[in-house]
Here is the input.
Amino acid sequence: MNAASSDTYTGRIWRRFSADAFARNGLRIVIALFVIAALAPLLANSHAILRVADGQISFPLFSSLESIEWRFLIYVPLGGLAFLFRQNFVARPGRSALIFAGIIAVVEIAIALHHPINDSTNDRDRAASFKLMPPIVYSPIESTLDQFAPPSRRHPCGTDSTGRDIAARLLHGARISLSIGFVSQTIALSIGILFGGLAGYYRGWSDIVVCRFIEIMDCFPSLLLILVIISFTGSQNNIFVIMAVIGFTSWTGVARLVRGEFLRLSAQPFTLAAKAVGAGDARIILRHLLPNSLGPILVVGTFGVASAILIESSLSFLGFGMQAPTPSWGDILSESRRYIDFAWWLAFFPGLAILITIMSYNFVGEGLRDAVDPRLRVK
Amino acid sequence: MTTYLIRRLLLLVPTLIGITLLTFLLIRLAPGNAALLKGGGGENGGRAMTAEQRETVIKLYDLDKPAHVAYALWIWKVFHGNLGDSFVDHRPVTQKISERLPLTISLTGTSLILSYLVAIPLGVVAAIKRGQTVDRTISFVVFVLYSIPSFAAALLLILFVAGGDYLNLLPMYGKNSINASEMSDGAWLLDRIRHMILPVICLTYASLASISRYARVSMLEVLGQDFIRTARAKGLAERVVILRHALRNALIPIITIFTLELPVLISGAIILEEIFSLPGMGQLVFQSLESRDIPVIMGCTTLAAVITLLSYLLADILYVAVDPRITYE
Here is the structure.
């Protein structure tokens, strides 16, 4: 990137952000976690990646993958690539849209044609002339006779009451935690921007109504509201219910912020100038107010992801989380309660995973806050 | 000021009605109700109940009326100072809540005071040693603490210091030992304190980060002001400058933040009370939610909402009271 193009608002924020070692490393860990989550089936699986036996070459791991796992494996790296080459796409939006549509069509057709082989036998003990196993040779929902094994070479994080490998469950659980954090905050940001924007831009009645509503939402003890809403769906939840519930209950902070920013920016000369030349509401909001408040919004969103991950694990811990065999960090912690007098690894490793994730998100949020508003810089 | 107060108090009414209405509708519309859970048998367990008995129970709990009518009946009773009786054991809601409040307040209150007693000095020291190793260490440590999920910390603390295969220094759960009723007052108190140590620690450590950060920022702001330079210039000892001139002024914004945290006192801590089997408010709410005990949930929510709204108001009033430059006229 040359000097001229980096001296933009975003460029300056990025430079200040990456000057902060904590923030930089926090971002690295977050990206690493996403990579781990995307590659989880390749990292922990009882099937071999490559198996040569009886003169036949097979890829048991890949043929056992469900379509949702294929989507994770393909779309997450694709998203990363798209982000890296975003400038090429912006330059030619029409052609890029076509390319994207094409890739998605090909991938979806391939996934539709793929029939996962439900082979419950594992390749660990199966004889083969050559086999390449994943780093962790257990699947997350695979029970073994090796119950309550403390951490060892075979099971780096030990096993639980039914002999499931904790490391495998943690790796697969990363997907749940990370995607819940990300999606629920996207929902929260959308609602918060909508309501906060309405209140801050139009003021008057919409402001009064929105502010009362925010006050009402904030009066509930946070977990209580979530627990009430989640009781509609019972204890058998899927990931989307959890995402929606967390999203719909954590937007008030964003709305307050957006309202404040819009109120502040509405009085700024550039907004008045836009109004004076006859720009419509939509143009002023989308082109002037929103872009100028994106920095602080992003900061709140980042901290929000951290707290959403914490909320999700609390919910699983209380037994309101994901359906039973799904590996989730809070669920492992919850199970550890029953065996807490000896099985420290059941509580320690998921706790550590949550700690690392939340801490790196918070470091990113902190760095972003300092970068967006240097006046707040406390160092 | 009086008109401001009256206006603010009047504004509380629609908010309170909104909160209670929302809660009421949500619980009423949620699948499953107290009558079914009580005697429905089937998937929810419970004693078998004849259809006739179930009808009686449903009538008794106003579950046959539409939700808005039932809400009107509930709020009518509240205006007469009656929060109703629990669906589960038919004891008055006020009694159930007042049984649990002392434990919750002693737990959350200790934790709240403790967190300020620890965090303010940390923040002040960090501000004085701005940018030095001490400052950065404090910031980092409280940040790590903030990121540890409290339930994981609670489980590991139980495992390692309370009755697991390792140290056995503190009791694992409960608010007292089984033989507490036979103890003398002193021994009873000591027993209670021993039971509260772990829950208080778990409830406290995470809040150190935000409070110490506020204290630090507030202190830095004061330290940069002219009157501090004047105090130093006239030759006052640094200790006097910090403690008497800077700290007092730095505490002003912290009072407001403290006020905003008061609602925690009565809402309790659902997860920690579950883990440590403490019969506090959090556990009461959680249990009544599971048994769809509408009067108890409504009572707890209303109490929490009133305290929250009042503490917002108190924070605003204190803001004016401690800083004569601000008025609401």
